[in-house]
Amino acid sequence: MELNSRQEKILKIVKQHGPITGSKIAEQLSLTRATLRPDLAILTMSGYLDARPRVGYFYTGKEPEEILTTKIRNILVRDVQSLPILIKEDTSIYEAIVKMFLEDVGTLYAIDDKRDLVGVISRKDLLKGTMGKSDIEKTPVSVIMTRKPHITTCYPNDLLIYAANQLIEKQIDSIPVIDKEDGQEVVIGRITKTNITRVFVNLME
User: Fold this and answer.
1) For residue 200, what pLDDT is reported?
2) What is the SS3 assignment for 134?
């Protein structure tokens, strides 16, 4: 995060005189407390400063890199997950190919009649399915999909860094986000490489 000149001055004052009240900071800058309030809020939320009632502001000692690392480590899967693309396990390979093309995704999640996750279908799976002699308009995706227990999953409250590590270690494009409902593992989202890339871009901006 790039600080403006006034925020840099506030940071310098707090480093030298902290803990110091907002009124004292405003006095040194010849500004009103109300004028400084947005800058103090930004510096506090960004992790540069901390504040204690009746004590004032003090410098946390954290550098920008440390603040960024802390933010990344605290992001949860539920904060960035996107909607899953679901199909029934008896869907034909042909229909799955059309679905993947129309939704512009790299992975489909197969569910049973109870909405329980039963399989994952990747582009590679569909490609293999079309290379055989089977009729892809009649052959269900259940024949080619990856089944449990070979499916990597994550939960909404898992750390995003955990999901990112799973994508790297398992060399996969996405991970279904599941939640327990009446004993079933219901798919409620997905984490992809695009989700994670977007997080890093947003943090840098």
Assistant:
1) 80
2) coil
Q: Which ranges of the chain have pLDDT less than 50?
A: none
**By C-alpha distance, which of 99, 78, 135 is closest to 121?**
99
Nearest to 196 by CA among 170, 171, 165: 165
The most distant pair of C-alpha atoms in the chain lies apart, rounded to whole Å, by 81
Helix (H, G, I), strand (E, B) or coil at 59: strand
Residue 139 belongs to a domain: yes
For residue 156, the model assigns a pLDDT of 95
* Overall residue count recorded for the chain in this entry: 205
Q: Which helix (H) or strand (E) holds 200?
A: helix 193-204
Asked whether residue 72 is assigned to any structural domain, the reply reads: no
Of the candidates 59, 115, 46, which has an alpha carbon nearest to the alpha carbon of residue 84? 115
User: CB 165: neighbour CB atoms within 10 A?
Assistant: 11
pTM, full prediction:
0.67
Q: How many whole angstroms separate alpha carbon 153 and alpha carbon 4?
A: 42
Q: Is 24 helix (H, G, I), strand (E, B) or coil?
A: helix
CATH code for the domain in which residue 24 is found: 1.10.10.10
